[in-house]
Amino acid sequence: MVKFDAETGIAFSTDGVGTKLVVAEELGRFDTVGIDCVAMNVNDVICVGAEPLAMVDYIAVEKADPEVCEQIGVGLARGAELAGIEITGGELAQLGELVRGVDVSGACIGKVGLDEIIDGAAVEPGDVVIGLPSTGIHSNGYTLARASLTGIGLDEDPEGRLGRPLGEELLQPTQIYVKPIVALLRSEVGVRGLAHITSGGTKNLLRLAAEVGYEIDDPLPVLPIFDLIQERGGVSDEEMSEVFNMGCGFCVVVAAADEDAALGRLRGHYPEAKPIGRAVEGPKRIVS
Asked: Structural domains in the chain?
């Protein structure tokens, strides 16, 4: 985040879809990965209290395929609509000597009043951590996920555990949290901390500035895809929580007095939202 003028700060982010694109290539389906690209950027920008405004995309390919590019564009447009932003430009690079397949990334810009920046410094012991559900793996951990699920066809639903084919589960787009969070920031609720739960899991709360720990004693339900990955790959609990969101894609920290008001607003968008823990006396650590 940089200071733009005496009153306004500008927030930036850059991120990509990662090896989720390997699944998209295997299925020959690219219409959702643009949503992921938007989501991974805008969800980071809102973590400092900034409202995302616009982004640009960067698509690197071995050789441009008009149908693939069109599908990616459909997803980018849908992601921009869900986030309430504009995609003001982009770049398509044919890099046959460097790239095999497709890579999709982007960069986002947002604005925030300098007196409205949220860096977590205001978090105090006793504050409530509210978890918002994820839609699945989102866009982190696909290397481990694919290795663990080797042997299961993308058209299969092992033992009916997922309720849809594995390929559809793996391509489920990343949830975009922008509009509900921006609405919450404009409300009477005093938001003290925001965290996008990606790789690192709830340890991403430790990026907040306050010298406190976080006790996560009532997490959101673990989604079936994570149980399947852990069982098939023999992955430890510790590694799972380090790599995946485990069903919680975003966290909001509010004072205990604001818990009901925050939940009332957030559950209008995410009925499963709930308090998953609280801030505790330091040092910085996650207690579960």
From this structure: 2-113 (3.30.1330.10), 128-287 (3.90.650.10)
